[in-house]
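ok posting inputs for the iron/sulfur cluster job
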Amino acid sequence: MTLDQLQELCAAEGFPRFTAKQLCDWLYKKRVDTIDAMTNLSKAQRARLSEIAHIGREHPVRCQVSKDGTKKYLFPVLDSHFIESVFIPDDDRATLCVSCQVGCKMGCRFCVTGQQGFHGNLSAGDILNQLFSIPEFEQLTNVVFMGMGEPMDNLDAILAATQVLTADWGLGWSPKRITVSTVGIIPGMKRFLDESQCHLAVSLHNPVPQERLAMMPVQKAFPLNQVLALLRQYDWSGQRRLSFEYTMFRGENDDLEHAQKLVEALKGLDCRVNLIRFHESPEAPFHTSMPTTIKNFQDYLNRHGVICTLRASRGQDIDAACGLLAGKE
Ligand code: SF4
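and the output
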């Protein structure tokens, strides 16, 4: 719950207004996992809170560890479902990739999660629990909303969770530590950009409309040119960063013709492109691009004024594709 929501709850219960601040302190600064541990609340308040609320801390039921140090956690949610989060340690960074839905409605053809259908939205509490309940919480430098689900399709929970992470009454993180991804749902993106300062990552994957549509059904309702038109209305020269995710599929979107179309599409937009090596899985009818093809694509973009990096593949031995572990469960 955000401070506003806690204030509403306190008002409804007849608690003093400052109790909401005390609750924030216990929940987000001290991160207690029982209401009984909130020792500056009266006994009666704690008893009443225990009747109407719960902290919602759920520990992961499984952790797979990669030889490169990446860890994949499995959490039970919504009665009989599972979601996963991935902890990615790096030299000076420790990133957690969190899920926001059980399954996903977007149906991207290359994605294992997308093939599982949609089974429900996570609450802000379910999202924050993925951070608070792992032993590495204190090490985290960054959070990316790039796990299972489409953030703009569960935006209230995303905005509440990012508010808890960034507000003074919450964890007080800089919004620069948080990146939220989307396939490009325009109304959600607009609200996100107006109400949050966190970074945005748009899954682009193909600059040719018909080809993108064949991979990503969202292209039909929200074509890429309209997504880019919206993004051009915002200022990206400051602290907030705009990036585009581009997974390289052999023979599909990885030649220099696509690179050229991508450069044209992004002209004048202050942004960067992250290339991603596709992790093959039996569920997806695509193959990984050759390393030289990826290098040529990256060089083309950089030579033509688009900052382009290749994201290191992490945890491949435990992670054939996002959503696989939760899918098995
Ligand atoms: Fe959903 Fe993301 Fe998978 Fe597309 S890639 S189906 S938006 S989880």
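notes: The two ends are 29 Å apart (CA to CA). Residues 104, 106-108, 111, 113-114, 148-150, 183 surround iron/sulfur cluster (CB under 6 Å).
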